[in-house]
Specification:
about 20% strand; about 35% helix; alpha+beta; elongated; single chain; 5 domains; about 475 residues
Length: about 475
């Protein structure tokens, strides 16, 4: 997927808006690089039509009428933005003019006629048009007053009307400030620091933004942005989950790790009928995992289908003992493989599956043939699991290096472990369960992607 795909989407109905930001101190360097790379016959800056505003119209009309320049300047400087396009008589009186005199009345009339009228042609700060062939065959081009520059005689609105693409080379002073700040930090640390080395999750920075204390902070340094941050902080505190999304009201940060970070979006849950490949139930959550979704989605699917008994197939991400237990006695038979995430497996130790459990005798038999019995629970611990061990066999066992790095191997057994063992037995009798799951649940999503024109995703079995 292209990172700039939204800029060239046909649904926009207009030419793409492409901006490239640079440090303001290197603006001329970038401009000359473009001229050198593409040639002045193929590249030129966009023009800007500067129109009369109240102050400039007052000055030029006053000069044409022969009014004293100092008095003209005094009147123009007294004109404020809240005066709008009109010239208030009070402004003339403040500077010693009679608003009813013929000269003043003509001055005001000419000024109002000039406001909004084109005054002169200037250069766009960095708007470039780059052509495949000679640019002058498409638009009128002239040499700029500054040496080494060419300017199109039309402004950006004219180019938009002709559907010519413009690339904006924007010189930002804040980028120069960021570079100097990185250099300063590098000097303090004794080693260069790059932009990508700045921590993304700095709590102090987010706390500063929440307070609206963002003077000199890129993109949020204006007073309007600072006021917006303070308003947003109140909305965040009022939200039930202390989150708001500016672009999508329902999107939330879904925790996907223990580091306090997550993906902003949705977790879409679906229950799909294995026979017809139809979605019979769905739910949208903001949890970054599936461990609490097995029972809710299975019950929702049973309610939607009206069945008394249901087989629920799910992958390892849905495994949760509590969820499997919640399905017990509801007519739902879950089939979820247990995750094999033990650290001992990676180190080559025996796994829990290598220890067999005897239900009648309530003990585990280890690979060496010793029986691990249940340890007594402490009266002050409200645990829901028991531990099995052999107090003497491990000390002299020849297989201990393959079993545990400690002096004693213990096996933990949940008090409802029988429910999980029943589920494992069902999985053993249905070896193709996960294959059926993949064929079932992935089918609707493949169809949805194809409907949206994303057929390049469906390449798994194509030759």
């Amino acid at each position: 997927m292209l990172l700039f795909e939204r800029f060239i989407s046909a649904e926009r109905g207009e030419p793409p808006d492409i901006d490239i930001d640079f440090e303001h101190q290197r603006r001329e360097e970038v401009i000359q690089y473009i001229y050198k790379k593409y040639g002045r016959h193929r590249a030129a800056l966009t023009a800007v039509v500067v129109c009369y505003r109240p102050r400039s119209a007052l000055r030029d009309a006053g000069r044409a009428l022969g009014i004293d320049l100092e008095r003209i300047e005094a009147v123009s400087k007294s004109q404020h933005w809240f005066d709008g396009r009109s010239i208030a008589p009070e402004r003339l009186l403040e500077n010693g003019f009679d608003p009813e005199s013929p000269v003043c009345r003509l001055w005001v009339e000419l000024t109002q006629q000039l406001i909004g009228f084109p005054r002169h042609l200037s250069q766009h700060p960095g708007g470039f048009v780059i052509a495949r062939d000679t640019l002058s065959e498409l638009v009128p081009v002239e040499n700029a007053a500054m040496a080494g520059r060419s300017v199109i005689q039309w402004d950006k609105d004219d180019l938009d009307a002709l559907r010519l693409t413009k690339v904006d080379i924007l010189a930002l002073g804040m980028l120069s400030a960021i570079r100097r700040a990185l250099e300063f930090v590098g000097q303090k640390l004794g080693a260069p620091m790059a932009l990508h080395q700045i921590p993304k999750e700095d709590r102090a920075s987010y706390a500063m933004l929440s307070r609206g204390d963002s003077v000199g902070t890129f993109q949020v340094e204006s007073r309007a942005q600072m006021a917006m941050l303070k308003t947003m902080q109140g909305e965040v505190e009022a939200a039930p989950d202390s989150q708001i999304s500016l672009t999508d009201p329902d999107a939330r940060s879904m925790a996907t790790s223990g580091r306090g970070t997550g993906v902003v979006g949705y977790n879409v849950q679906t229950a799909v009928d294995a026979e017809h490949h139809l979605i019979v139930a769905h739910e949208v959550t903001n949890q970054g995992h599936d461990r609490t979704q097995l029972a809710p989605m299975a019950l929702k699917a049973r309610q939607a289908t009206g069945l008394d008994a249901l087989t629920a197939l799910a992958d390892r991400g849905y495994f949760s003992g509590d969820q499997v237990l919640s399905c017990e006695g509801t007519g739902i038979a879950p089939h979820v493989p247990r995750p094999l995430t033990s650290s001992g497996t990676k180190r080559g130790f025996f796994t829990r599956q290598d220890f067999s459990y005897d239900v009648e005798r309530d003990h585990y038999t280890c690979p060496a043939g010793a029986n691990l019995t249940k340890a007594n629970r402490r009266a002050d611990h409200a645990e829901d699991s028991d531990f099995y061990r052999h107090l003497s066999a491990c000390h002299s066992c020849a297989l201990r290096p393959q079993c545990t790095p400690t002096r004693l191997r213990r096996i933990k057994r949940w008090e409802h472990e029988a429910v999980l063992e029943k589920m494992q037995a069902r999985l053993d009798h249905m070896p193709d369960a996960m294959k059926i799951r993949r064929q079932t649940v992935e089918h609707p999503f493949g169809t949805l992607k194809a409907w949206r024109g994303a057929t390049h995703f469906l390449t798994r079995t194509l030759e």
